[in-house]
Amino acid sequence: MTAGLAVAIVGAGRMGQEHAAALTAAGDRVRWVIDADPRSAAALAGAHGAESGTDLDRLLATTTPDAVVIATPSEQHLSQALRCAHLPTLLEKPPWLGDQDPTPLVAASRVAGRLVAVGMTTRFDPAICSVQKAVSAGRIGQVLSIDDTINFVLGDESLPAWYHQPHHRGGGIVQTNGVHALDRVSWILGELPRLVTARAGSTARTDPIEDSATIVLTTDTASVTVNVLWSQYEPPPTRLTVVGTLGTATAFADGSWQVTTIDGTEQGAAAPDRNNYLTQWHAFRAALADPRAPSTIPTVYDLVGPMTLLSQTIATLDIRG
Ligand SMILES: NC(=O)c1ccc[n+]([C@@H]2O[C@H](COP(=O)([O-])OP(=O)(O)OC[C@H]3O[C@@H](n4cnc5c(N)ncnc54)[C@H](O)[C@@H]3O)[C@@H](O)[C@H]2O)c1
Fold it and tell me: Is ligand 1 within 6 A of the CB of residue 300?
């Protein structure tokens, strides 16, 4: 593995700070920070002894980072990733918006030796990982159904304003959280399900975007329901449940998990100290060090199927206030 990568972070908000802490903990170095807001760039750069700037193209013209992390608002991802695709890149999700054409980015990422990975961070949650492993090992038999529920309490100031903007600006719960569910149910199933129906609503009633959605998917043998909710009240717990012909596997929000079969129950304890960003960064480093080894971090190419589902979902959404 390459020692001590000099990394550029693009977007110094909440996620930029998470990635900066994770890659530093892994022994790498934040060397440059780019943010449209010079104060945000300077604040994160100052915390890491890095250089700050506001111009990504200028950075790319004058330096060659060992890796780039893109953690800007979602509507920036496609164009920025295209500019960085010649460098090892970790791109935050969603890798593009539901109404954007990713073909040039996918093509650029498929050039031999390139790594353009996507931060589908919940794939690195110990509970989700354990469920995926149990299913792929055949422990619960053939999957009959998956129920993936992602719920958050959301106060008025919980998220930066852009999350509340229309889909073509990157906002909405489907693009923000639904993308995790669409990716991980496809990963757990080992195949891309088909969209049956999607329905969305607004509990806050003030946003031009949905804050709740139900997406129903199917395969030839399994049905899948995705529920996502940003609520003003305490919502039902976040959890993912897979039911199979030989047993059931559940991932809980605290990192704990349970697999129950006719032979008994196996459980994993809550993991309050887990750092999914750090685990993800280790996976990114491993993929970089050995491009031929089976990789646990998805690339933009791997996201084409789930993002097609996301596009179809957004196209069929019917916002109900
Ligand atoms: N993987 C996960 O689990 C996870 C969790 C939360 C958010 N995210 C994703 O991370 C991304 C960032 O989310 P966030 O909550 O940190 O947002 P944020 O608004 O807190 O941070 C974004 C930063 O990007 C800067 N910025 C805006 N336009 C820019 C541009 N053109 N060039 C450079 N900088 C620019 C902003 O000034 C801001 O500092 C989003 O796409 C979001 O979907 C991923």
Answer: no
